[in-house]
User: Which sequence fits this backbone?
């Protein structure tokens, strides 16, 4: 279980952030600075997605929707993670958070077939979106969330019996799969007064023959090695890579740390996520993937770089490796 002080959750290791007055002023100055490299010069092209009524009965197929939203087909089960499908991840899009780079999605929420579950990593707006949940709630009978997030879904109209919430190292059975809620190094909250009132997490998914790890949002920390020792190796990892900054390096990994975390959990194929949909950091929009690819090659890590909407067979020798993002550069 995660540490909890009073009604607030805590990280396993101290996680300070530089939020001094000078830092805040500097961030506001950067927020309104016009930098053409912080978003693509033209809309990102997506691969339209068509799904059959039933998923493939074997192996691992994963389709990324940009940022941290992805559909996982694992041994005949369909699981949707962090489905933020709205145009902007901010409650005040005119001030914070850009519009979606692609403009459109590979598949509209209303067009999804039946899902075995929707799984959430934490409650931030770029991972938990009210409009998306309401469009998708009729597609599944099961929502799996970290502690403290269940009540929010119920307020949005999800029936209480369809939502289970879990703490770190909790394990559960889901449609013949074994899931474990695991630590991450981050924080939670959607307003001024609910910071760390709910838990943030990573997820482990184990089938009869395949294992998948999703990092959620996380700074680099020892929990990755512990996860690898307890549950690895993994055939596929979906690892946070993007929206980083030296001022909040404790809660978001630098791309080189993304690759190291993949090695720590004993991952096979790496797909970097948490980029290519919105501008939430101050780096160039495609810097995360460029740096991650360089680091992966230097470390001998297999890294896939699918287009948004492109399905990856994680067990195949042939996986996407093109630098497609360069087509949309300034």
Assistant:
């Amino acid at each position: 279980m995660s540490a909890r002080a009073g009604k607030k959750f805590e990280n396993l290791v101290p996680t300070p952030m530089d939020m001094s007055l000078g830092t805040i002023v500097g961030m506001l100055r950067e927020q309104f600075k016009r930098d053409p490299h912080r978003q693509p010069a033209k809309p990102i092209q997506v691969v339209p997605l068509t799904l059959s009524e039933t998923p493939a009965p074997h192996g691992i197929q994963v389709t990324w929707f940009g940022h941290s939203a992805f559909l996982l087909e694992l041994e005949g089960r369909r699981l949707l993670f962090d489905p933020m499908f709205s145009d902007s991840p901010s409650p005040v899009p005119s001030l914070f958070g850009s519009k979606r780079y692609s403009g459109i999605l590979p598949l509209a929420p209303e067009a999804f077939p039946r899902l075995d579950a929707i799984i959430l990593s934490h409650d931030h707006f770029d991972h938990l979106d009210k409009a998306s949940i309401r469009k998708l709630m009729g597609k599944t009978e099961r929502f799996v969330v970290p502690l403290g997030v269940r009540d929010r879904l119920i307020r949005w109209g999800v029936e209480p019996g369809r939502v289970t919430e879990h703490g770190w190292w909790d394990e559960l059975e889901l449609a013949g799969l074994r899931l474990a809620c695991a630590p991450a190094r981050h924080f939670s909250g959607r307003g001024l007064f609910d910071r760390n009132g709910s838990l943030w997490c990573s997820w482990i998914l184990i089938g009869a023959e395949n294992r998948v790890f999703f990092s959620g949002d996380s700074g680099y920390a020892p929990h990755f090695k512990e996860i690898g020792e307890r549950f690895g190796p993994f055939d596929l990892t979906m690892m946070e890579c993007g929206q980083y900054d030296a001022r909040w390096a404790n809660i978001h990994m630098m791309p080189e740390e993304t690759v190291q975390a993949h090695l720590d959990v004993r991952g096979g194929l790496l797909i970097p996520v948490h980029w290519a949909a919105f501008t939430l950091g101050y780096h160039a929009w495609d810097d995360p993937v460029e740096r991650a690819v360089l680091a992966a090659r230097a470390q001998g890590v297999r890294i896939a770089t699918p287009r948004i909407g492109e399905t990856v067979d994680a067990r195949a020798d042939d996986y996407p490796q093109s630098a497609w993002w360069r087509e949309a550069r300034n």
